[in-house]
Write a structure and sequence with these properties.
Keywords: Hydrolase, Protease, Signal, Thiol protease. The structure is a single chain. It contains five helices and eight strands; from the N terminus they run ααββααβββββαβ. With about 160 residues, it is α+β, with helices and mostly antiparallel strands. It folds into two domains: about 40 residues; about 120 residues, Alpha-Beta Complex (endopeptidase fold (from Nostoc punctiforme)). The strands form two sheets. The chain has a six-stranded antiparallel sheet. A two-stranded antiparallel ribbon has the order 1-2. Strand 1 and strand 2 form a beta hairpin. The longest helix has about 40 residues. It is globular and about 35 Å long. About 25% of the residues are buried.
């Protein structure tokens, strides 16, 4: 009886330890991605850009939107470039892509634009480059968010990057 009782407690303790380790590993991995995005924000040269992004982070996506009730990707880039850099972009991402001077992705600087084609050959999405491979954009599913440009989902559809200057 005593031996059975000890075996039960030993199995229970080992189970708890193994479960805790498994949970911790997942949490650390998630924190690492968030940590890198936070580092990109912390390393922005323009504090005005930092405030703009934090003010808009989480605003929901709304096609054609241009305010805090909802904004689309080209609207977000339009507002950011105008307020932070004093540049008036065209309103549509495809036209914004034609407006910029092409630049290699390895030479991007804070405020440059990155363009994607999720639906074919035409540009249909835009984001604003930050630093260290991160950019900010209005995601159709997650709203305004800082994202990792090196993710395969973005690398496959990246079609152009450039500067408005």
């Amino acid at each position: 009886m005593i031996k059975t009782k000890y075996s039960f407690w030993l199995i229970l303790i080992l189970s708890l330890i193994l479960t805790a380790c498994g949970s911790r590993k997942y949490t650390v991995k998630s924190y690492s991605k968030a940590s890198k995005a936070a580092d990109a924000m912390a390393n922005l040269k323009s504090k005005q850009l930092y405030r703009f992004i934090t003010d808009w982070t989480g605003v929901k996506y709304r096609f054609g939107g241009l305010d805090k009730n909802g904004v689309d990707c080209s609207g977000f880039a339009f507002l950011l470039e105008k307020e932070i850099y004093g540049v008036t972009l065209p309103r549509i991402s495809r036209d914004q892509a034609n407006f910029v001077k092409r630049k290699n992705i390895d030479n991007l600087h804070e405020g440059d634009l990155v363009f994607f084609s999720f639906g074919g050959s035409d540009v249909d999405h835009v984001g604003v480059y930050l630093n260290n491979g991160f950019f900010v954009h209005a995601s159709t599913t997650r709203g305004v968010i800082v994202d990792d440009l090196s993710l395969p989902a973005y690398q496959r559809v990246l079609v152009k990057s450039g500067s408005v200057n």
